[in-house]
Structure formats: C-alpha cells, structure tokens
Amino acid sequence: MYEKEKADFLRKGYAIVPNFLDVGEDMEQLRGECSHVVAGAPHHSVDSCIYEPRRAIEEVPLCERPTCVQRLVGRLAQVAAVLLEGRVEDVLLLHEQYIAKPPHSPKSAFSWHFDSENVADTVYTPYASFWVCLDDVKHENGTLQFLPFSEGHRMSREQATALLSSIMVKQEYEGFDEYLSEHEAETISAGTGSLVILSDTVLHRSFPNKSARFRRAFMPQLGFSPIKEGGKRIPVLDPCGKPSSKKQKV
C-alpha cells in the first residue's frame, strides 16, 4: 500500500494521492473548523494565510479534537509510517494548521522555502507534511510549485539550504523560468480531497489566490520526534497518553 507514493516521495520529495478524503461529512467538518478558526484569528494570521486551530500542539489533546481530525490524522499516520519507514505506533503529530488564501489576494503567495528550514539542529529528524485539499487547487487560486530532488533521492537540509540561497538570487534575473523548466519544476493541480505529501526538505512555493473564493487546505505534520525544543510527544494512535491496547498494521 502506498508504494507508488513512497517511490515519488523518495525520488522527488513529494507525492500526490487523488481522492484521499471523500467529499462528505468529514470534509464539511474540516471546512467548518477552518471557517471558525479563520473568523477568530488575529489580523497578522490573515496576512500570512496560516491559521492554527490550537495556539500550541499541547493545548488541546488530539482525542479532544473533532472526530474528523482524529480519523484523518489516524489514516495519515499509516501513510507516514510507509513513507518515513517506521512503525505506525511510533508516528507523532508534530503540528497542524489550516492554510486559507482569501479571494483576490495578490499578497497570498508564499516564496520558495522548505518546511524544516527553521527547525533547530538539536531536535531535527526527517518528517513529512500532509497537505489535504479542502477545495480544488489550481494555478488561479494559489497552487503549489515544486522543485524536485535533483539527484533522485532525499535532499539533506544542508543541500536544501544551499539550493534555496541559489534560487533566491536566480529568481531576480531573467531566465529564471528557463532554469525552473530545466530542473523539471512542477506546478500541480489537485482536486478537492486530494492529498499532497511533502518531504521536509523539498523546495516549493505557492502562487497567489486570484479567484473569487477562498482556497483552503489542512496540513498536519507527522514524524517520529518532536520538532521543537522540549516538545511533547503526541502519538497518533495513543492521543490521550493511555497505554495502547492494539496495534495497527500498515
């Protein structure tokens, strides 16, 4: 299961699973929570398009989060165990956020980056981000563009940092589009319910939302070790810290 996605993830740094989440009750609950979080967010969150349902991952236990979130994160733990090559019972929820780009928002683009660039070396271990499309995602409403791993295998953080520095310079000059084409940069389109999986070291950016509607995504991050100093371990299969009575197979 998920062997094709694992091959893409290891070779390119990202993978897409179409129709991962059905457009049904769980989707509507996620959209509802997204709307609630956006409505209650301070202005600085609106500027960045990033909205966190909890001020800190430890603030509300996972077992007290909406059932749609618990079900989804549980499924994602199965995928994470395959892609990151570990035991599903060891998968931790590291962070979660909604990314909601407002309509007609030219400033809602995200520049080139990789997800782990600000994680301290003392706590870093590889992890993955799971970008769940709550709307159809295309160029017009702020989709993602990836620069795949250049050597066909995972890029180290040192390599990603060097490449990012190079790109930030190159994009200021003519010929940058040709550079992206030569390096097989991919701009994705994904339907509602699709899952986009990102390695923490794959370089990517997103475009502004020029459409008349919000473009929303839910993005939990999963791995095997907390990514902040003193971070609490939150096992996905043991969300309340109780001894697990059963194990799941991948």
From TrEMBL:
- The residues the entry assigns to the signal sequence are none
Name one matching Pfam family: PhyH
Q: Tell me which cofactor or cofactors this protein depends on.
A: Fe cation
The record's annotation in InterPro entries points to: Phytyl_CoA_dOase-like
UniProt protein name: Phytanoyl-CoA dioxygenase
- Species name: Palpitomonas bilix
